[in-house]
Please model this.
Amino acid sequence: MTISLDKLSTRREELVKNYEELTKNIIEGEKQIINLKDQRNAMGGALQQVDMFIKEEEEESDVMPEEKQAALNIATS
Model:
């Protein structure tokens, strides 16, 4: 069985088209991965910021109110 040059050329064109489509899909996928990583990094930064606010609030709530501190100072002096 012989394959004609026309059939080979047609098959080659199909393969080139498929190759280019796959390359395009890979590039788009890589762009999506970069975008997702950027979003993840932004979320990580937001989490750090919220953790910092929580820590600051916890530290502030550990501070004794002035009235209570004054009463403690009187009682211990």
